[in-house]
């Protein structure tokens, strides 16, 4: 009985310490962080157009398209496809994605298409592409926007974030930031 | 790809280098020696006084276990009630519903046992109140439970004859105040400055560039993720766990979070060396664990970086490896490294979807959980390793015709019996559970079609993985499994309880029995346990137990799938 009373009381006190005081301290520290701990937003003309870290659906041909998503970029949830490489349905799905991509990008050969454009990410909200994943879409966008492909390649280079400290991890391009810069460079056709 | 490899190599070295001083610190904390965190002593005294605890009262091993089990029972009742009624409680800005009885049973147990298997998604299945006051609370106290149990074993293995093994509350409270909370404050601050939100605001909404209206789930994520990794818990705030760009926004945070789940399991091995003044033994254990870890990591890295056969047949560019279920900011190498560390360490958080891994990689993740002693979870990893060590001491002793001894104590029938029972419990729970589920599925594949996301051998792997993860108290999953059903919620709940508490009770009992034996002075006839030869011996014991028990099941699942590709 004494053990139970001690357990109950200690539990109560630790709830206060670990579940109230600790998160409140982090809440306070978060106020000083970029985005005040509420998530960093990107704005255009004063309007919030997205969260820097949350990928959004880009499927129109005049934008750099983002990766396939198992949750259709609905950020009220998250998740991957959980499809196994041996699944025949999955094999057909990937094949169909490749065919669609090649149809919209006749300038591109299958061997140049990077795997990320055919595969769904883990979160369904992946905000990034590899540099190759963006570059392979340049010819299409140049055609749709009537802008020189070399200027777009330069834009991708500018928007590429290299490995951490120049030597750790992959290089990547944030699709939302890239598309915002793209709209600046060459306004969207109407 | 080179920079990706460099990233994990630097991370591993940094983790070892930081674990050594942290191990020294942990040994001093539990040895009640002076440390720079002594300014926290008044806080601890307040906790003891208000709870009516005398932290200097010595306990024997049975009293330790009584205290441990009593407070765990309190946590279970508390967690179940709150999860079951969360929909009607405050701090629920998104209006999420209460959990069903079987789901609340599963969730309460799963977090109580430091497993964090989740049959719900954090965005919709929990409220801010239950995320913080139930799930995050349990992530602190269950990690501390494991560490405290290990501290009892440390105390018992000091070479002397005694029944007095320190005070459970002392070890438990100090695990939180001196270890988990300070590290969490550090990691959560880094995360919140790197883009992980920490807010009590509900969902945000915006209109995207293409004109879609999108809602974004948020919450006190940074605080949660810090203890999720540091306490080797693994349950995510968001459904996608460490793959979610708000839980793990950059490559840098990925390094920080991987470090966070490595650091305490690494450090407690070195702490053992300092506590018992047996640093060679600590290095032997750490070396054995690392060798086992690399054996699992190497094939995984190979298969994840060489791309998926499904895409190879289409002739596309797979220079960056297999990417289904992976995030571009993390990459194939960072995903494989996290996945293997997370499965051997019983964290079970994921930054890529293991269900979409290549079959052999999936087998390595499962094997890591089946062995469950390479580094292992907070405290309990070393306890599991101790079980294998006792068996290895016994077998090696028989082989060379010497009385088996460990740290100056004779290892006799009752210790070996306990060790064998604990070692065999794990395959029993996994294989019996999988067998029952497979039997059920095959009798009603139409009615249970929602269970499996993939057909054939991989579908079998999904069920095998779930029981393996539960019995290893890991918490990762082949998430294609439709697991929020009464069968999975209830059966997994039972596996979780047995697989948590028996492997704590067993090693504590072994240590308690050893502690009260007479000390046998070491002599030329003593079998040395801190040598390379003995390390090979332990590895052999581990591989024999794991391979014999699990090879048939792995053949039916991942191996069959591999050869069908």
Task: Describe the structure using short key phrases.
heterodimer, A: 190 residues, mainly alpha, 2 domains, 5 strands, 8% strand, extended, B: two-stranded antiparallel ribbon, 18 helices, 4 strands
Oligomer: heterodimer
- The helix content of chain B, as a percent range, equals 55-70%
Largest β sheet strand count, sense and barrel closure of chain A: 3 strands, antiparallel
Radius of gyration of chain A, in angstroms, nearest whole number: 22 Å
What structural class is derived from the secondary structure elements of chain A? mainly alpha
Q: Strand tally of chain B, please?
A: 4
The low-confidence parts of chain B are none
Helices and strands of chain B, in order, run as: HHHHHHHEEHHHHHHHEEHHHH
Strand order of the largest sheet of chain B: 1-2
Overall pLDDT of chain B: 94
The description of the largest β-sheet of chain B is: 2 strands, antiparallel
- N→C terminal distance of chain A: 76 Å
Tally of separate domains of chain A: 2
Amount of helix of chain A: 40-55%
- Our Rg estimate of chain B from Cα atoms comes to 23 Å
With helices defined by DSSP (H or I, 4 residues minimum), what is the helix count of chain A? 6
Content-based structural category of chain B: mainly alpha
DSSP summary, beta strand count of chain A:
5
Q: How widely separated are the two ends of chain B?
A: 25 Å
Strand content of chain B: under 5%
């Amino acid at each position: 009985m004494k053990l139970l009373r001690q357990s109950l009381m200690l539990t109560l006190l630790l709830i206060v310490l670990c579940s109230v005081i600790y998160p409140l301290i982090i809440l306070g520290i978060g106020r000083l962080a970029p985005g005040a701990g509420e998530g960093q937003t990107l704005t255009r003309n004063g309007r919030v157009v997205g969260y820097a870290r949350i990928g959004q659906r880009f499927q129109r041909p005049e934008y750099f398209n983002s990766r396939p998503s198992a949750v259709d970029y609905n950020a009220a949830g998250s998740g991957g496809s959980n499809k196994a490489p041996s699944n025949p349905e999955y094999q057909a799905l990937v094949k169909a994605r490749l065919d669609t991509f090649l149809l919209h990008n006749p300038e591109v050969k299958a061997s140049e298409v990077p795997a990320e454009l055919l595969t769904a990410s883990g979160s369904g909200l992946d905000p990034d592409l590899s540099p190759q994943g963006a570059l392979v879409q340049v010819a299409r966008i140049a055609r749709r926007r009537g802008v020189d492909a070399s200027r777009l390649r330069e834009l991708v280079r500018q928007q590429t974030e290299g490995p951490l400290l120049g030597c750790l991890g992959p290089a990547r391009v944030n699709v939302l930031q890239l598309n915002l810069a793209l709209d600046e460079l060459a306004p969207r056709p109407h | 790809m080179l920079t990706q490899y460099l990233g994990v190599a630097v991370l591993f070295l940094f983790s070892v280098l930081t674990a050594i001083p942290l191990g020294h610190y942990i040994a001093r904390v539990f040895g009640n020696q002076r440390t720079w965190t002594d300014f926290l002593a008044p806080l601890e005294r307040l906790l003891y006084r208000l709870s009516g605890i005398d932290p200097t009262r010595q306990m024997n091993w049975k009293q330790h276990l009584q205290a441990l089990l009593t407070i765990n029972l309190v946590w279970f009742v508390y967690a179940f009630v709150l999860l079951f009624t969360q929909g009607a409680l405050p701090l629920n800005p998104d209006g999420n519903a209460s959990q069903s009885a079987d789901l609340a049973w599963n969730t309460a147990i799963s977090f109580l046992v430091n497993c964090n298997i989740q049959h719900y998604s954090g965005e919709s299945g929990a409220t801010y109140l239950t995320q913080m006051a139930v799930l995050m609370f349990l992530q602190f106290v269950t990690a501390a439970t494991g560490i405290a149990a290990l501290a009892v074993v440390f105390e018992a293995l000091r070479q002397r004859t005694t029944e007095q093994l320190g005070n459970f509350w002392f070890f438990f409270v100090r695990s939180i105040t001196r270890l988990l909370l300070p590290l969490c404050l550090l990691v959560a601050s880094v995360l919140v400055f790197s883009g992980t939100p920490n807010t009590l605001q509900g969902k945000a909404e915006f209109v995207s560039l293409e004109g879609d209206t999108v809602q974004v789930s948020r919450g006190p994520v940074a605080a949660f993720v810090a203890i999720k990794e540091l306490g080797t818990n693994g349950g995510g705030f968001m459904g996608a766990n460490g793959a979610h760009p708000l839980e793990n926004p950059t490559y840098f945070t990925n390094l920080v979070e991987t470090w966070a789940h490595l650091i305490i399991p690494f450090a407690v091995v070195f702490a053992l060396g300092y506590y018992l003044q047996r640093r060679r033994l600590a290095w032997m254990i750490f070396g054995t664990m690392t060798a086992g870890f690399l054996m699992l990591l190497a094939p995984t890295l190979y298969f994840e970086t060489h791309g998926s056969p499904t895409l190879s047949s289409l002739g596309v560019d797979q220079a960056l490896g297999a990417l289904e279920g992976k995030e571009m900011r993390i990459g194939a190498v960072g995903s494989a490294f996290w996945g293997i560390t997370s499965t051997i360490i019983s964290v079970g958080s994921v930054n890529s979807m293991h269900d979409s891994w290549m079959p052999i990689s999936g087998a390595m993740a499962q094997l890591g959980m089946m062995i469950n002693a390479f580094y292992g979870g907070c405290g309990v990893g070393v306890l599991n390793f101790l079980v294998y060590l006792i068996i290895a001491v016994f077998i090696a002793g028989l082989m060379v015709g010497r009385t088996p001894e460990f740290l100056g104590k004779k290892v006799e029938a009752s210790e070996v019996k306990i060790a064998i029972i604990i070692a065999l419990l794990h395959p029993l729970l996994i294989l019996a559970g999988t067998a029952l589920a497979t039997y059920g599925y095959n009798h009603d594949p139409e009615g249970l079609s929602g269970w499996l996301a993939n057909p054939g051998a991989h579908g079998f792997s999904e069920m095998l993985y779930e029981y393996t993860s539960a019995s290893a108290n890991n918490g990762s999953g082949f998430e294609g499994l439709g697991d929020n059903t009464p069968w999975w919620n209830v059966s997994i709940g039972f596996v979780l309880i047995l697989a948590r508490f028996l492997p704590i009770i067993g090693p504590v009992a072994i240590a308690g029995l050893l502690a009260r034996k007479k000390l046998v002075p070491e002599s030329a006839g003593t079998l040395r346990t801190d040598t390379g030869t003995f390390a090979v011996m332990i590895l052999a014991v581990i591989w024999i137990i794991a391979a014999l028990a699990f090879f048939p099941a792995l053949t039916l699942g991942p191996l069959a799938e591999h050869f069908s590709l």
